[in-house]
Amino acid sequence: MAREFLGGFELLVLLALIQLGEDAYGVPIARAIEASSGRPVAIGSLYLTLKRLEQKKLVSSARGEPTAERGGRAKTYFRVTAKGLKAADHARRTLTTLWHGVPRLQGERA
Amino acid sequence: MTSMNPPRLAAWLLRRFSAGPHAEAIAGDLLEQYQSIRSPLWYWRQVLSAVIADMAGSVMANRARTLGALVAGWIAYFALSFPATAVIRSLRRPTLRWLGGISAEAYSKYGGPEPTVSLMLQIESSLVVYVACVITGWIVAKLTRSSASVAALALSVLVFEYAMIAILSTTQPWPAGATFPIESLFLVAGRPLSVLFGGLLAIKEPRRSMSGV
């Protein structure tokens, strides 16, 4: 089966999940992406991407316990699957190879 | 910790229109973040983007159901336009009489009733059409049990009606002294909203293990 390419935001989500490990649910995932990209993240778009990654079997989810600070709503924790780790590694290698072939960007210091 | 409730209407919209597998987690995440951000505008933006993302995802994942909802909805919309037109016609004469009829002066000046009377008649007929739209939304929601399908139908009604206004206003000659029908733009917006309302009446609020807002 042909390997699927990861979208830009999908890769960011996957890397945030790897970085966060066990404590990866919506809020910290959004904060990790916002901190690294400097752009606000819409929770709805984040969950849409997580759903897509789940459908691709790159991510799995598990329901946590409801907490008072969330108005009694449970968290959903996400973990990267072995297939997800492979996909992230493949994306890294692809991007690294492509970046090697890109001439120094204009204005970038030596 | 002192907790602060987010805007009620936005929280209600999220409850009613977010139906995906992670709906509860999304609501919880937004509430958790709201405790530190405390900006109603931020919450509204997040809710609207979450609802739109959820509906778009649902429509894309259930294309056949959405197509069926659109077909059923438009059949109902056109079928109900006949009794709606009959009701509007039967109401016109008594309403005109109640409003004082058409004066000879108004007829010679506007070619019909005065603008305020025309507006009243337009509002009356719009209300009848809104009822037909509510029934349409209700039927589609009962058939599909999906808010996303009803929203897709409402969106198609909005696009269709505004396209009709655009086509009619560019192809038909304007009566002398007439201005752009601003009131029609407002009144037509009520049709998709009525479709959504009809859908809300048919689909019960999802019961989730959550308290508070």
Nutshell version of this structure?
The complex is a heterodimer of chains A (about 110) and B (about 210). Chain A is of the alpha+beta class and about 110 residues long. Helices cover about 50% and strands about 15% of the residues of chain A.
Unreliable spans of chain A are none
Question: Strand pairing plus helix content of chain A: what structural class?
Answer: alpha+beta
Binned strand content of chain B: under 5%
Shape type of chain A: globular
Largest interface summary: A-B, 23 and 32 residues
Question: Which features would summarize this protein structure in a list?
Answer:
heterodimer; A: 110 residues; alpha+beta; two-stranded antiparallel ribbon; 4 helices; globular; B: 213 residues; mainly alpha; 0% strand
Question: Can you describe this structure?
Answer:
The complex is a heterodimer of chains A (110) and B (213). The N and C termini of chain A lie far apart (42 Å). Chain A has four helices and two strands, in the order αααββα. Chain A has helices spanning 8-20, 26-37, 43-55, 82-100; strands at 59-67, 73-80. Chain B is mainly alpha-helical and 213 residues long. Chain B is built from eight helices and no strands. The longest helix of chain B has 36 residues, at 63-98. Chain A binds chain B through residues 25-27, 30, 42-45, 47-48, 50-51, 61, 66-67, 69-76, and chain B through 1, 3, 20-22, 24-33, 35, 45-46, 49-54, 56-57, 208-213.
